Structure formats: C-alpha cells, structure tokens
C-alpha cells in the first residue's frame, strides 16, 4: 500500500512529536508523568503496560514500557465535533514512558490532533486549528514541567 506522502519527509513538528528524558526509575517516572499531566489539565482514564502484556503472552523479554492515556474531556469533546466523531479512532492522547536503560526513562508523545489534521479528518478546519493550539499549549506545559524536574 502506498501512502500519499513520504513519512520520512515530515518534520516531527507536523505530527507533534515531543520527547524528554527523566533520570529516575521506571515507576517513579510513570508517577511523575501522571502527576504532571493531571496538573496540566489532563485526566488519565487509561493506563497499561504493553511490555508486561507481551512478556507474559509471547515471552517477548521487553524492557519496561508504559502507556498513560491522557485526556482533557473539553478538548476531546471539541475534537469529536470538529472531525464528525472520527478522531475517536485515535483516542486517547498517549504519553509513553519507556525505559531506555535502568535509571533512564524516555517520555514520548505525538499529537493526535495534528495527526488527525494530516489524515484530513477535520470537517471544521478553524476549530481544529484552535484545538491544536490549545492542546499544544497543554502538552508544552507538561514537557516544560518534566524538563524542569528532570
């Protein structure tokens, strides 16, 4: 299957890629990201550990990897309207915490709002632009706080 653009030519800014490194153990990093997301206005209604699941089910021997499904209900509601509900296929906004090595965790995020824009999901471009700006400020605040405490 060919995609209509070369993903290697995309600037990470176009899909809202953000990352930082925390020098701490895995569990402490998860707690820190959860706390900072909550302080920035995100709830975390979904959490799971793909590494635990895969290690158990297929003996994958994966290093710790955790997904915090962050969500701001007001933004989610706006995004559903701006995309005729299709953005729900990308929900929630995930914050990934993965152990790079013992004592070093990477926190990673991509903007589902920007990805929705790239996929042509919005039916209300102006509202989607406003949502991208608003959620971008929230995510920037999360990563600024993580960087300050790193």
TrEMBL record:
Residues 51-110 form the DUF302 domain. It comes from the Archaea. Residues 1-24 are annotated as: Disordered. InterPro entries: DUF302 (IPR005180), TT1751-like_sf (IPR035923), UCP021774 (IPR016796). Pfam families: DUF302. CDD domains: DUF302 (cd14797). PANTHER family: SLR5037 PROTEIN. This is DUF302 domain-containing protein. It comes from Halorubrum tebenquichense DSM 14210.
């Amino acid at each position: 299957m060919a995609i209509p653009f070369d993903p290697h030519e995309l600037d990470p800014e176009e899909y809202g890629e953000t990352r930082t490194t925390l020098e701490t153990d895995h569990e402490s990093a998860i707690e820190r990201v959860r706390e900072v997301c909550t302080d920035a206005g995100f709830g975390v209604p979904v959490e799971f550990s793909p590494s635990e699941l895969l290690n158990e089910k297929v003996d994958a021997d994966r290093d710790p990897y955790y997904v915090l499904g962050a969500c701001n209900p007001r933004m989610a509601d706006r995004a559903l309207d701006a995309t005729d509900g299709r953005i729900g296929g990308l929900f929630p906004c995930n914050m990934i915490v993965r152990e790079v090595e013992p004592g070093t965790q990477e926190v990673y995020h991509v903007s589902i709002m920007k990805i929705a824009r790239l996929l042509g999901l919005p039916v209300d471009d102006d509202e989607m632009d406003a949502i991208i700006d608003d959620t971008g400020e929230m995510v920037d605040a999360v990563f600024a706080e993580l960087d300050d405490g790193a």
